[in-house]
Structure formats: structure tokens, C-alpha cells
Here is the input.
Amino acid sequence: MTDFGIKRFGGYVPRLRLDRAHIAAAHKWMAPGLKAQAKGSRAFMSWDEDPVTMAVEAARDCLDGRNGEGIAALHLASTSLPFSDLQHSSLVASALRLPAGIASLDIGFSQRAGTSGLLQALKAGEEALFIASDAPLGKPASTQEMAYGAGAAALLLGSEQVVARLVGSGSVTAPFVDHFRAAGERYDYYWEERWIRDEGYAKIAPVAIRAALAQVGIEMDAITHFVMPPIQRGAADALAKKVGFAGKVAPGLEDGVGYAGTAHSLLMLVNVLENALPGERILLVGFGQGADALVFEVTDAIATAKPRRGVSGAIAAGEATDSYLRMLSFADGIELEWGMRSEKNGKTALTEQYRSSQQIAGLVAGKCGSCGTIQFPQLEYCVNPECNAPKGKFEPCSLVDEPARVLTYTSDWLSYHPAPPLYVGFVQFDNGARILMEMVDVGSEGLEIGLPVQMVYRIKERDRARGYNRYFWKATPAGVGA
Amino acid sequence: MATGIKDKVAILGMGCSRFGERWDANSSQLMAEAFDEALADAGIERKQIEAGWYGSAMDNVNVGNSAIPASTALRLDGIPFSRMENMCATGTEALRGAAYAVASGAVDFAVAIGAEKLKDTGYGGLPSPFKGTFNDMWLPMGSAPAGFAQLAAGYRVKHGVSKEDLKRAIGHVSWKSHQNGVHSPKAHLRKAVSMDAILNAPMIAEPLGLFDCCGVSDGAACAIVTTPEIARALGKKDLVTIKAIQISISSGIESQMNTWDGSHVRNTRNAAARAYAEAGITDPRAQLGLMEVHDCFSITELVTMEDLFVSNDGRAVNDVLDGVYDASGAVPCQIDGGLKCFGHPIGASGLRMAYEVYNQLLGRAGERQLKDPSIGLTHNLGGVPYQGVAAVSILGLG
Here is the structure.
């Protein structure tokens, strides 16, 4: 029993969906058996999303406009982060405008990193933001391509106003290699599912679960929610039965999300917390080279800590697409002819990036101390011709959560863009600031002048020659799925 | 007290290469075509030229930076020769440099030459520009049509025009220029096009279709300027003199403050107001005999009619559809085909416009000659409507 637990929670799922029937249809000529799996839809990332951008969005959903004051550490768990040597949590922290004085750490290397990292962060006993964000890649025509999805979950941990207290845990470590992905490889190499089910889930997970229950001093019937990711179809139900859980197994989010790797346990947890009641106990299971089991007890504070939109909102915001090749192209699974216009140099001046990191990463405008004009970017002098005061008088003012509308827009079919057309136009913020921005996830409704938009953190430029992603904010129709 | 340059500079000679997809010519050859014609027209020797301004906008696909490619191409040795680059206003900026040199009394003869070789890229349209290391961090990577297409959205909402009516009006803008281009021997596109073809063309940037976008062309144009006194002493009878050249450039107001409504171009209005004041024009619609404006996109020309104060605000759609700017209209616009059909080799375009006005004023425009124009206007718009540079020049007889 600890006083430590989850204070706030949030999640993110990319808006784009593809019915699995489209994937199966694309592979029907060589893998007709995939049709048996072709149920529901899976989420996939747009070309400008990755686990970093999803992590930022999940954290924003969790913090819901709070500035992160008091956070001492940021942890990011994933096995599909874009860099091998560059701390992604530093990028996430800068986008969230967290204080520079925090500790930060990336963790991964196993599907269990989500629960193992969470357990470590909880045991550390300091206020922390824990994010798991993942988009595992399935090889075309594989079972994984059908089952996998993408998403991120964020949990604010601490000891005050806790909504779900950690009351016990158990872990098992075992050299059980159900699948692996060698460094530098794109896809997982999987062993037979039946062996994984019988020797893995059925034998390893119960040990951790029993240890956790013993630590709390309760029996299985004291658990309300059984949260175990559906790494295989039916695996969670089978395990629940095996360990004697008679209640309702938490929704696996197979439809609308798909298996989201290290993030999946926590996505399911967030989804459960959205409707959890005080006094309920949640058993959270993570699997991968062993297993973790965490038991949480929901407190009265649950009524006051709602995410901005939550996992359920993100699922509701799904936008159906109909092209398997689009999903494949966004994941670099196929090389298309983009024409000579795509031959541009995407090099980032790292010096300039660092100089401007505050305003760029956090979309921080300056509010002129002399005339009050809010302006982005912040240059050397105030833009107001009646003022032109030096920027020494500017107050930082992030536009990330500022209400805004479309002032002008167009859909550009000429520019090279990985998801044509490029929607671009001026965004007018209610506070007076104005920025020319890319507009994304426009959806079937399209754009119109005056349409409310909100900011989303995305990849600005993918420098394929050097493998460097540069990030910035884009606008998207507001309130979708809210 | 500054007095401006009205009547202080005469155009002694002008030349213009054939515009188009000049697979046969590089920048040097295009410059020589324009320069030979201008020098012959001026009636002076190459060695008499004392200063030069070379306009080229895209060093990355052209001949590189500095004015050395021009001074070498034209074998103009040892004189001050500068490269001018200010996006699509480059050609007019080159003319401004040469005109100011003469007006100041620093030199007697100066040359302005603009050239652009755009068809060595391997694809249609303009190459995407480098926006700078800082702007690259946040500015979207939209194309030129995407920048101007947004004017359509802003204009439509400001003036309550339907999408269909606006599409028809900008379609007429291009239709008229194609009609005019037929009579322009040096123009890139010399074929009339039906309204149906224009309205149903593939979309480039909503609502701009293919025919709403100007040609991307190779070409060069050249002016040799001197004082009116010297021009007369050289035996020139009909003189075309510069009445005004004005430039206006953005400082971020449109793109960073909430005052601009997206429906017009502030820079054009600023430059036009100052140019009219410099030239002494009080009623442009009545006084201007012709206009060569920056119709990079059809919507740009439509909005420009209001920005130049020739159409009243909100009236350009009607004026365009009523034929006010057609060859037979009250204020013929793009009588040589404009950027749309004559072509748009960026660094040359301002000088190409001046070339047409110059020839029209002197009665040398052949089958597209207008009846006795005495004053004409050129207009360039560089960059995008919300972050750019506008140039307005006024040329007149006498």
C-alpha cells in the first residue's frame, strides 16, 4: 500500500483509421487467410505523426492545460521511437513547456516497458509524468499488420489528489522470446502463437498476478477491472479465466485502435479510468520477457480528474480512410514516385533550432509589454507599427491551447506533400496572434473560413537523407471527438 | 525635400527576348537577345554604358549569384554592375536602380537587365524557395499558388461573393489574357482558350486551376536609361519618361497582426498611392491608358484592380466580367498577354511590362497597338500577398 498513484490520465489515438477488410483485400492474392482477421478498423499514424508527437498529444490530454508545475521527472516508454541516440523525452518536455529542472528518461526494448517503467516511476515516489507511446510496425500481409495500431497514454503520478493509488505489484522476469526485432530492423520476427499463449501468457503472467494480489492481501474476486492487452486475439479472456477472474475483462481496443505496443496496457487503463468508480480495483498486466502486474485502487478524487478528451474521445474522433497503400506509404512501407519537387534539402540547422527552441517547441508567442500585441514568431521588435518596442519587453505566451479560427485557407496540389493536398492558411487566434500554418486531419468536412481549429504537435519536416525529424505545431479542426 | 524621379529619367532603348520554354537558350543568350535590341534602339555604343543593374530572382536554378554572369554575358567591363533580387519585383527593382543612378546625376547612361532561366529544372512550376534557417522551423512549405489562392478565400468572405461567381470572374481574367497573347509575337502562350477549358482545368490550389496560373518561362528584358536632355540631344523625338517607381515591402503586419482581412494586398495599395502621388495621377481609371499588372494568378489580377484603385472595393468581379480590362475596355490590362501568356521569367518580368508600355506609348505595338495611350502602369508583386514586395511604375510620353 502506497500513497502514491495516478493523479491525472489521458490518451491519444491517431485520427486515421483503416478497416482491416481493406488490408485483407490488398493481400488476398497471396494471403487469403487474413480475411479471418478482417474485423473492425485499426488506427494508423499520418505521415507527420510518430511516437514523439503522440506522446505530446497524450500528455496534453492528461494535463488539460495545466502547466506541469511540480513535475520532477518525465519518462517515455516506446519501442518505435525515431532515434537511436537522441533523448525523445527532451523533445516531449520542450513541447509541453515543462520546467528545465526535470529529470527525463526514455525506456523501451520490450513490450513490457510500459508497465515496468510505470512501476519504477511509481516506486520512485516523486511527481512524474509517465508516457507510453508506440506504433509497432507489422510486415505487409502479416498477422501483426492486421492487429497492430498506434496510440499513446499519459499518466501524471504523485501523492496528492490521487485518483488511482498503487496498492500492490508483482513482477516476473523470464527469457521468453515470443518475438524480437533486431536493432535496425523494421519488423518483428514472431514465433508460433499457440506456444506464446500456452507457455507465455498462461504460465508467466499468473505468477506476477498472484504476487501482486498477495502483496495487497486480496483475492481475485476483489478486482473490478482486468486490464491485459490483446497481444493475441482472445488471450486476455483466456488469462482472466485461468487466474479465476470472473468479472468483465477491460475492452481491448482492438476496434478503432489496434495493438499499440508498449502503450497498450496504459491506453486500456486510461480508458477504464474514464468511467471508473471510487473503491474499484484495477489489475493492470504487462507482458514481455516476463510480466508485471499492478493493482490500483480508485479513490473519490476520480470524479474530478477527467482528461480533456480521453481515449474514448480519441476513438470517437476516428476518420475512416479507404486506401491500404496510403497507410503503407505513411509508414515508409512503399516508395512512391513523388516527383522532382520532393528532391528538396530538408537539412535542419541544429544551431538555429536550439536558438529558437523555446518559441518553436512550445509555440510561444511574445506579448509586447508596451502595446500588448501578441505575436508569433517573436522577432527583435514589436510588429505593431505604432509601437516597434524591442523584444526585451515581450512576455512569453504560448498559443498551444489558445482558441483559434481559420482566416484563409487553400488546398495545395502543387507542392510536394506526403499526404496531398497540403492544406495551408492563416490561423487567427482569439488573443490577436496570427500564424500561417499547415492544417492537418481536415477530414471529410473540409475547411471553411471561421472554422474553429486547435493546435496539434506534428513532424514539420522529415529529412530522409539524414534521418532527422523536425517538429512543429499544426492546426486541425477543433473539438473532434470531444 | 525629396522631389521624386518624375521626368528626370528617359528610356533611351528597350529590348525583350522571346519568352517561353527556351530549350535553345541559356541565360547569357537570353540576355544578349534583349540587350542587342535595347542597344540598337538606344543608338549608343556598349562602351557608353556607365552602370548596370542585373535582376535575377533564382540563383539556385539560374546562373548563380552576383552580377558577374550579366557583366560577363554582355561584356560590360569594369563598370559598377550590381545584382538585384527582390522576388517578382526584381525586374522593376533593376530599372529603379538604373533610373536612380541617372536621376542622381551619377551617370549619364545606365542599363537594367533582367533574366531568368526557369526551364532547366526538369519539372513544371517554380522551384520551392529556401525560406531561411529560422523560418524553415515553422513556415509551411506551400507553393506560390497556395499563397495567392488564399486571397480568393479572403476576398470571397469580405465581399460576400459566391465561389462560383468568383471562379467565373477569375476565369475571365485568364480568358482575356489568352485572347491578347495571340497578338504578341514574343509571348510564351499564343493560343486563345475557351471559358469551359479554363473553368474545368485540373486544380492546382483551390480555387486556382491550371489556367488560373501564369506560365513559367525563360526570358530576358532590358532597358537603357539616360536623362531627357541627353535623349533629346541624341535625336529622340517621342520620349518615354519615368513618372514614378515605387516599392512597398511587408514588415509582418499582415502575417502577424489581426488587422489585415486577407482580401487585398497592402503593399500594392501603398506602392500605388505613392506612385500616383509621384506621377501626379489623381484618377487612375480615367488617366491610365494601359496597365501591365502582376497576374501570376488570376485572383491576383482581380484583387490588384482594386488595390490599384482602378476598381472600387468589391467591384472588381463586376468590372472584370463587364470587360473593363479587356483589349477593347476602358483600361486595357495585359494587352501583351501578361504573365499569364507572355510568360513569367521572374527577374525579367518587370522590365517586360515596361517594354510593352514603352512600345505602346511609342505606337510600336503592331497588331495589338492601343489607340494613343499616353500613360501606362506596371505592377509587380513578389512573395505572397501577406509577406511580399510590390512595385508600381508609371511611364508616360514627354
User: Anything to note?
Assistant: The mean pLDDT of chain B is 96. The first helix of chain B runs from residue 27 to 42. Chain B is about 35% helix and 20% strand.
